[in-house]
Every structure is written in C-alpha cells, then in structure tokens.
Amino acid sequence: MTVSFTKYHGLGNDFILIDNRHLPQPIVTPEQAIKLCDRNFGIGADGVIFALPGEGQVDYTMRIFNSDGSEPEMCGNGIRCLAKFIAELENNNKTKYNIHTGAGLIVPELQADGQVTVDMGQPKLLASEIPTNLGNADEKIVNQTLEVAGKSWSVTCVNMGNPHCITFVENVADIVLEIV
Q1: Is residue 75 part of a domain?
Q2: How many CA atoms, within 13 angstroms, populate the side-chain half-sphere of residue 139?
Q3: What is the Cα–Cα distance from 107 to 40, expressed in whole angstroms?
C-alpha cells in the first residue's frame, strides 16, 4: 500500500499528515502508525494525523494516532499543523476551519503572518478528567509530589484534549532531560 503524506512540526512536536478526505476512517492502523513514527526505521514523528471528511457545518474531522498507537482526543500543536495542511490542500483564502475532534469542535485560525492560533477551551484540572490516580477524582492535581525512581517531583496535571503531567524547574539547563 502506498500512502502519500506531508510532515509538519509545531513548537517541538512533529507529525505525519495524511489527506484522508475520501474515507471516514483512517487509512492507516494504529499498528502501522507505530511503525511510521519510529525515528530509526520509519519516517519518525510524534504522531500521525488524518484529515477526514466533516459532516454538516464541520469542515473536517481530525483523528490522530500517537507514536505508541494510542489515540488522544486532540493535540493543540497537531491541530495547528492540520489547519496549515488543510489550507494547502484546499488552496483557498479561508482563515478558519471547523474541525471535529475527540475533544469537540475546534476552530483554528490562520493568521496573516503564517501562524495558526487555536482556542483550546478551558483546561481540565480534576483528577477524573485527566485521568490520573495521583489524587481523588474531584481533586485538582497542582504542585503535588510525585515519586519517580527515588526522586521527588512537584507536578501539575492538566488535560487539554491530551493528558499532560508538568513539572516546573528553576533552570532547565540544570536538568538532564534524557533521564527525565
């Protein structure tokens, strides 16, 4: 099977974008996405994003498979890349696209300077919404201690369509990121 793709990056994330407007389901399986995302033996990417057809007032549907084959609701940097990809596919003067995601309707805007902005909505902070078991279901996980390999980290958890566990440091140069 031959699959045409374009590779995009946004703020440190890189994605394989596939024009999937002709079918309502992704033409690549999660298992194939793992292989495509492999940085040694594949194309290499954080995920594979599909531009699927929309319905009604929705221009497109976004589906994404992460490099491990999992499917998040949405990815902020990914939808910005998808908006640029769609604009290049359509080659028109539209500046907004209504895109259905697993997290709901998202409307990225293409700016005159080439940037893409997205209103990501309100962050989900409750443990049950992330999801995480670092606290009670109705508790916000903010500056909570997390033990990893004998080291304590102060973490904050948030879900913006894809769960994140964030730690703040005084100086990133003092952290060996490859170990973290």
Answers
A1: yes
A2: 11
A3: 34
